[in-house]
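the two lines:
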Amino acid sequence: MTVTTVIAGSVIFLLLAIPLAVQVITAFRGPFLPFGVSSAKWSVDNFVTLWELREDFWAVLGSTAVFVGGSTIISLLMAFGLAWVTVRTDAPFRRVISVLVIVPFIVPPIVKAQAYLLMLSPESGVLNQVLRLLPGDLVVDPYAFSTMVVIQSLTNVTFPYLMIVPILTSMDGSLEESARVSGASWPQTLRRVTLPMLWPGLLGVTVLTFILGLGSLEVPLLFGQESGKDIFALKLWTLISASAGELPQYGLAAAWGCVFLVITTIAFVIYLRATRDAERRASISGKGFRPTVMKLGGWKPPVLLAVFVFTLLTAILPLFALFWSAITPYPIAFSFEALATQTHFTAFGEVLGDPEFWASLGRTLVIAGGSATIACVAATVLAYGIARGRRTVWTKAVDLFASSSVAIPAVIAGFAMFLTFMVINPVIPLAGTIAALVIAYSYRVSIAYRSGYSATLQIRKELEEAALVSGASPLEGFRKVVVPLLMPTVFAVWIQMFILGTNEFTLPAFLATPESRPLSVYMYAMINPRSAQLYAPDAGAAMALIFTLLVFLIGYGLQWAVSLVAIGRARRRSAIPGLGARPAAAPNDPPAPATRAVAAQELEEQKEFADR
Amino acid sequence: MTAAHGGGRLVVDGLEKQYELDGGAVPVVKGVSFTIEPGTFTSLLGPSGCGKTTTLRCVAGLETSNGGRITLDDQVLSTGTEHLPPDKRDVGMVFQNYAIWPHMTVFANAVFPLQVSGGKLPKKEARARAMEALELVQLDAYAHRPATALSGGQQQRLALARALAHRPRLLLLDEPLSNLDAKLRDTMRNELRSLQQRLGITALYVTHDQSEALSMSDRVAVMNQGRIVQEASPRELYYQPADRFVADFVGRVNMIPAVVRERSGAGEVLVEAFGTRLATPCPDGVALGDDVTVTYRPESVRWHETAPDRPNVLPARVVRVEFLGEIVEVEVEVLAGATVVGTLVARGAPLDSPASGSSIFVELDPNACRVLAG
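prediction for all of em together
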């Protein structure tokens, strides 16, 4: 048991610590690679250079702060509003709304960014076409910095939404009811009770959204190059893509990476405190409850209108723009005349007949599946060992470390992994291979670790002890009790990480070669005007649509298959002849008295502890 | 069937257990010794944190003790240094929150002990035995339901069936009734006791509820701060508590501080209490002038409208009358002239309840009290 825990811990350590260490060493060892080249020596030159170019430094820092900070705030406000409408109000069509909001989540970010770019095109873009129909001279400039901030918010909004919904759902409505009964109005209750209670949870969501925004390359890459603003992610990417005849400036890029790693570390500390507070507050309640519902009354039409505009901007118009681009040979504005005369559907056929499309699709599945498996297995084993073991300084440190990948922005991870594979290439030639991508994608191991940890905590220790007292050896107990109970969580996390992997663009942007590139990178090559040979906007758009459809089918197909298996198991159980059948139930419902019993026992333990 | 069960003799001798905390070792169980005769029912009774659950878990093998011997019949379960793992101990255990495996059916839960290395049986036999155990707790009709479909009381019975399925020599129960509502608790208490007697299994029961311990047990060991303070039959425990802790923890009690003043006859003394002299039995090892505590159960304090011509009758005033259904509880202030010298709580039949505020006499029967040193 301990041995496997140690092995799993080592895997995670290697995944996270080595690349970051290589990056830090590179920052202090010369302008190019830190080892194996003549220029490598210990120095602080890179930081000196950073300081000498401080005007540039402050400009990047400033525009990154506005870009990431602004988009974080906007997407949080939107996410909170939408989550509130779907969970806590009596708005009509709440179910439909909650589905519509999640649709953008399965659209790969690079596809979203591309769709927005098409939608916003000054001449042919559908949004500007719609705006021209309205009075006033409204035209959105796609390359304005403010547009970029809004686009980034729209790209990322599903992430905070998915995290805020459970926070709102699990809030004990009786706490608000008691405020209302005490004579507080709805706004007063919101301000004095609801928000202060939700605050730690929301702070945690804010930090994670911030780190996500800082780490994603898609929007800066597609919009930023034209807008003239250097965003950190873009800066890092341009620094390592050397212009002709020059060596890429890995050292300077690494120094940049170090600066931003310090920033995210601070954010991570805030996140840790916030989640600790959130858990503490969450533990105050714990009975079964339903959140109270706010009556919208006369506010229903404006709320619905806002939701409609949101859906229009995040789903309908971008997908339409993408589709329009796929069926037109070159960018032209939508008109019925163009629809009748200029459209063709050959692009879809081209994509499906393109062997490279199928090859990169295969690579995508291998990379996403392989990395999700590595991360889930290692993280679950380690999480079980840590959650069940005695709390010592050591295990606390391991716990913190295994949770820390959420603090590493994807661009930094991609860059650090890239450096690492370059450094070890003479010994272990992995650079540019599919294996390298599998390893790199696995860096998001903390997602699996945190889920595994809380899933283990939810398996009450008595369930294992009962197996031991019943005569099961520790291994039998683990196999027959723990594994079946952990499996649903592990499957769910695997699917989540698999979808993340298929959507991934930032990591392969740093790591992939034409031989190992996944679909997202191949698609970017087709829509990027600079990649002369591959550039084919209609095929690119068609591929984006097929790509999205595939992610949707695979992701939801897997979830559906898993739930079918679960239902099947429940059916088989009740189908044993001669016994009362019971309709298929969720097989992993906690036993009826679980919460109460656990709460009572915890209380008792606290008392016992205090008595000692 | 019944014959196949039967119980072992459990001997716990000088059990010690410490928990490692940041500051060092904190002793939780400090030299606990007791013996349970085969087929009898013993309760460990005590407040939260007294070490009773830890003692039980040491017997189960879920905690490793730091000292002392635990034996079941001839088998050594644990010494201070060597410990048989729980799966080799042949015990059954019911957990406070039942620990029913939610991913299994009722039957799968019950048959588990017969499928694993500790008590593996051929498939057919295991099946028959598990169904037998489910019949014992009247759950056989629910065998193939998911375990989570059971109500709290049913889960509790399933936990019991699982603990009995492999016919262990010793049944361990860790506050199994504390999560049930009051009515169900009473029913289960009777069922559990009669099942234990029918099977003749040895049982060790942990509880903080004195009425559970008194009603179910052959012997009760009261624990406080890691030690057993008294081990006795329920009756003896109630009427002959060894010290003030036991008297106070087991049932309600009036504690009257007093000083021994004179010997008044064979085995009797007069003590000074409530500003007057009371006749009480003479406790062992008490000398004149010693401080003692005279304890009366509320039901041993009787009230009268007129003073009977017997010893230990004191004037009093009723300050509170509380109707509890089958009895009334009366709180009185004991008077010496016009001054209040103390309070007593009495319980009796509701029919001759005095009125609140009325003046009455309370009688403290010398034969119904227990005098404790200190």
